[in-house]
Design brief:
Blueprint (H helix, E strand, L loop, with lengths): L13 E2 L25 H10 L20 E3 L4 E5 L8 E5 L5 E7 L3 E3 L2 E10 L11 E8 L4 E2 L2 E3 L2 E7 L7 E9 L3 E12 L3 E12 L1
Antiparallel strand pairs: 1-14, 2-5, 3-4, 4-14, 5-13, 6-13, 7-12, 7-14, 8-11, 8-13, 9-12, 10-11
Length: 211
């Protein structure tokens, strides 16, 4: 993750409480039938695929622990499902821990892509009662494509999407478009830089589409 910190952008996150620490990938696993709003993972993934979305569990509605299966973090911050989401019963709240630093929620599994045009997006908001910290939260697409990508601001293996101030009480879209110049894989992340300890941002409806 060190190479990603070379991208110099300011951050907006917000003060919040109640974030629960995920200590292992096992905490990301499927939930049980007693979980309110629980949806069968395979059924939801089939529905996502039928809509053309290549991201697994894009609305964080599946499973229990952390933000459900398919999601991890890059900087040891906390992340937990909160209710309600922008769509569906849940969203994912990501909180900065420790000394001032960035944080990131990202898809765990690499997503296969072929040569062609792609569009990625996510929606972000500040928790109610949170205090804006610094401007600049947005989507990043990390790629492993030998032929590289074009069509977006990129550095090393990162396609950087729109970064902007995160509103309180409403959702704002962050998005990126790019062209894969060959076959490879990508992962999708929602990233902040230099977040204040204890500040949080809420994420929902992450998507990656072939165009």
């Amino acid at each position: 993750m060190a190479r990603r910190t070379r991208v110099l952008l300011a951050v907006l996150t917000s003060l919040s409480i109640g974030c629960s620490l995920v200590t292992s990938l096992g905490d990301l696993g499927g939930g049980d039938a007693g979980d309110a709003g629980f949806t069968d993972v395979s059924t939801q993934q089939d529905a996502d695929a039928s809509n053309g979305n290549l991201v697994s569990n894009p609305s964080f509605d599946d499973g229990q622990g952390g933000c459900g299966p398919g999601w991890g973090n890059g900087y040891g911050m906390t992340f937990t499902r909160v209710s309600p989401g922008r769509t569906g019963p849940y969203a994912c709240e990501v909180c900065v821990q420790g000394t001032p630093s960035g944080d990131e929620l990202h898809s765990i599994g690499a997503i296969p892509v072929q040569a062609g045009s792609y569009y990625a997006e996510a929606y972000v908001t500040t928790p109610d009662g949170g205090t804006p910290d610094e401007a600049g939260t947005g989507i990043l697409v990390y790629y492993a494509i030998d032929a590289g990508i074009t069509g977006c601001l990129s550095a090393n293996d990162i396609c950087q999407g729109s970064f902007s101030q995160v509103p309180t009480g409403s959702w704002q879209r962050t998005n990126a478009s790019f062209i894969a110049n060959g076959a490879g894989t990508v992962t999708v992340g929602i990233h902040t830089y230099r977040g204040t300890p204890g500040s949080c941002v809420i994420v929902d409806d992450v998507a990656l589409y072939a165009q």
